[in-house]
Specification:
The chain has 28 helices and 20 strands. With 734 residues, the protein is an alpha+beta fold.
Length: 734
């Protein structure tokens, strides 16, 4: 009567029939590179990735059956013989639960709140187990069991367990490794091989003995494997570690974004709201989870739906990019920056700031900190919180040589962390828009602000190719002459006199090609005076610079506007792609947990300038590398072949940029500090701070025969096209 009532749902809880036939799989989403390497996973509580029966080692199947359910293939969910033995021997011979019953408990057994519910738990599990045996094959049941079991250390399911404990796929587990994992099934915490190695080894040997009894292994194999020490290749998966950490976090937020509403953005984030609104309308990937629904009508969930996100990232190129950024910034620039700051009283801030301005910056950082938020929620006044920030306390701070235990006040720790240089790097295939490498910073654990797509900084002279493109589209040629003299312009009733870092060839008429090659501000200002600033703003929007804060003015020609690295690299694809700009393509397709393609993503392109204008720009930008501000690529990094580029440096050396253009790849790097009020020092030019990252990256690519980026690559131009050869006039400027 009790079993009949449970079956009919009149007594206790029984999951709906459709759930029994289609249990809700909650699998982690995998982020996969273009060369089929796992970059990471998205999950909340359970880091689980499902595998099929044929992808599990027979050793694992045999060990599980021999230990947990020797008559697995002979019962229909309940092994009455084992159950009777367990009752007679009061549990000393095992609990009598079959693998199917254990699966039922994993999937549907709710927490008992009273004695009555606790008494019904086992009968309900028996009913569910019988139903499972009706709806699934033995292979499917054992696969579900292994996919759902929690092996500890954030490893839910056999795939994650094999990877976490032994660094391999489930199908490659040997007898000893399989026995170790099956040993966890009795009590994962008690037989944890990481904490209790000896205990886990004894349990492993018990499993091996059960395999011998079931004749899955021979006496010789048992003796040999029992004598082996317990060897682990243990590595937990942390989303803050591994490859492409900044990219994975950007992608997670990008795909799960909701439709932007102004009320959800702080008052100072109007630019981000504007950019997000455009992305929502134009980019299918932005907010994809909230724009698309599954068969059941609910939105996709990157934490539980077991999606496979096929990205454009190349794992080798990503590795080379991360190494290039870390080597140059952390190992080379940071020690020089620290040494220079030792003599500065306001370090790391520029000496041009007053103490009040510095205090205001620190106060703003205090108010944005987690410590301030927590103390405010606890009811402390602003004065009490400030006192706490000025009181020394024991803390651990980050350094590139390892964490440091020290005594420091929270306000001093804020200043300390502001002393670390930051960097952003991205590379894109200019023909497809596919993002091949994405480095948002140097250490995601400690510096989580993404300087590729989120951070926006002044771009300095890297804006000049946009200005020169406008000139080429309005009838100018690279050989047109301009006066290389400092001039004062009337801008909205006020005088504006741009400065230049060099007085080379002062007073002469020079070509525009020479002006861009040397990044001459006076030539840029002269060009801007001959063109319409509003036209430059409009053209920059076609280049993909979406910020609403770019205002038409004479000074715009020197790059005072804030732009992201991602926007800049995407904009520069125009010069390698016949005047057509490719928007960044982060994901090529998405598959569901059964391997079905549920989304494909195509390159989004915009025609920006004419082909003829592109060829002119390529000639001038190649001259930047061949004898101009980017020549360090040649003489220091020995980068051969056709390459174009542009350096950029902002006021007070606060931001350093370099954009490199090759026929098959566009790469851009930015180096700076957390605050623009921090100067990079006397070495702060783009050619010194940012160019070496691109140079080192390209050098690594050229050395790798498996990556199709070579010094023999050529820009696509008509055979009839002739490079522009200008004869610079040496007559005095009029």
């Amino acid at each position: 009567l009790i079993f009949w009532l449970i079956t009919k749902g009149a007594l206790g809880y029984l999951p709906p029939l459709d759930e029994l036939q289609n249990p809700k799989n909650k699998f982690a989403t995998e982020v996969i590179s273009s060369d089929m390497q796992l970059l990471g996973r998205y999950y909340r509580q359970e880091n689980r990735v499902g595998v099929n029966y044929e992808d599990i080692s027979p050793n694992m199947i045999n060990a599980l059956i021999a230990t947990e359910d020797a008559r697995y293939y002979n019962h229909t969910g309940i092994d009455f013989k084992s159950l009777l033995r367990a009752i007679i021997k009061m549990g000393r011979a095992g609990g009598g639960s079959t693998i199917t019953q254990q699966l039922a408990k994993q999937l549907w057994s709710p927490r008992a709140n009273n004695i009555f519910e606790r008494a019904l738990q086992k009968p309900i599990e028996w009913v569910i187990a019988v139903k499972l045996e009706r709806f699934y094959t033995k292979e499917e049941i054992i696969t579900m069991y292994l996919n759902y079991f929690d092996f500890l250390h954030n490893a839910v399911g056999i795939k994650m367990a094999a990877n976490t404990y032994f660094g391999k796929d489930p199908k490659n587990l040997n007898v000893v490794e399989a026995a170790t994992l099956v040993g966890l099934c009795k009590n994962p915490s008690y037989y944890n091989p990481v904490r209790y190695r000896e205990r886990a080894e004894q349990r492993r040997n018990t499993v091996l003995h059960q395999m011998l009894k079931a004749e899955y292994i021979t006496e010789a194999e048992y003796a040999e494997n029992k004598a082996l020490p317990l060897v682990l290749n243990f590595k937990t998966l942390d989303h803050k570690e591994g490859s492409a950490t900044y990219f994975r976090e950007f992608l997670r937020k990008y795909m799960t974004a909701k439709k932007p509403q102004r009320k959800n953005y702080p008052s100072w984030a109007s630019t981000q709201y504007y950019i997000d609104s455009i992305a929502w309308e134009q980019d299918p990937l932005y907010g994809w989870c909230n724009k698309n629904v599954k068969k059941d009508g609910t939105n996709y969930n990157v934490y539980t739906d077991g999606l496979k996100i096929r990205t454009s990232i190349n794992s080798k190129m990503q590795k080379y990019a991360e190494e290039a950024v870390y080597k140059h910034v952390a190992k080379y620039l940071q020690p020089l920056f620290d040494k220079e700051n030792k003599t500065k009283p306001n370090a790391p801030f520029t000496s041009q700031l007053t103490q009040k301005q510095i205090n205001d910056i620190l106060m703003r950082s205090m108010r944005q900190s987690e410590r301030w938020r927590v103390m405010k929620e606890q009811g402390h006044t602003d004065e009490e919180i400030q006192q706490a920030f000025n009181k020394k306390t024991e803390m651990t701070v980050f350094s590139y040589h390892g964490n440091i235990d020290t005594l420091m006040s929270p306000i001093d720790s804020i200043r300390y962390y502001k002393s670390f240089l930051r960097a952003g790097f991205m590379s894109i295939d200019p023909k497809t828009g596919e993002v091949k490498a994405y480095v948002g910073g140097l250490n995601y654990h400690h510096f989580q602000y993404d300087m590729v797509m989120l951070g926006r900084r002044q771009i300095g002279s890297t804006i000049k190719p946009f200005l020169y493109s406008l000139a080429m589209e309005n009838g100018f040629t690279p050989c047109d002459l301009a006066p290389n003299v400092q001039q004062t312009y009337n801008v909205a009733g006020q005088s504006w006199t741009p400065r230049n870092s060099s007085r080379a060839r002062y007073g002469e008429n020079v070509t525009l090609k020479w002006g861009l090659q040397q990044s001459n501000n006076w030539i840029s200002a002269y060009l801007m005076s001959r063109l319409n600033p509003q036209q430059l703003v409009t053209l920059m929007q076609k280049f993909g610079i979406d910020s609403p804060d770019i205002h038409p003015s004479m000074a715009l020609c020197l790059g005072p506007c804030d732009v992201s690295v991602g926007e800049m690299v995407s904009a520069y694809t125009t010069f390698a792609n016949n005047g057509i700009r490719c928007a960044p393509l982060f994901v090529t397709r998405i598959e569901d947990n059964e391997g079905n393609v549920i989304a494909d993503f195509q390159t989004r392109m915009t025609e920006v300038i004419s082909q003829e204008g592109t060829y002119k720009m390529l000639d001038m930008l190649q001259a930047v590398i061949q004898g101009g501000t980017g020549s360090r690529l040649r003489y220091k990094f020995n980068i051969e072949g056709q390459i174009a580029g542009k350096t950029g440096t902002t006021n007070r050396n606060s931001d350093a940029w370099f954009m490199g253009i090759t026929p098959k790849l566009v790469a851009g790097a930015w180096v700076g500090a957390e605050d623009q009020s921090i100067t990079l020092g006397r070495r702060g030019e783009g050619s010194v701070m940012a160019l070496p990252i691109v140079g080192d990256f390209l050098r690594r690519l050229h050395k790798d025969p498996n990556i199709n980026i070579n010094k023999t690559d050529k820009f696509v131009r008509p055979a009839s096209w002739q490079a522009v050869e200008c004869e610079d006039a040496e007559t005095p400027a009029s």
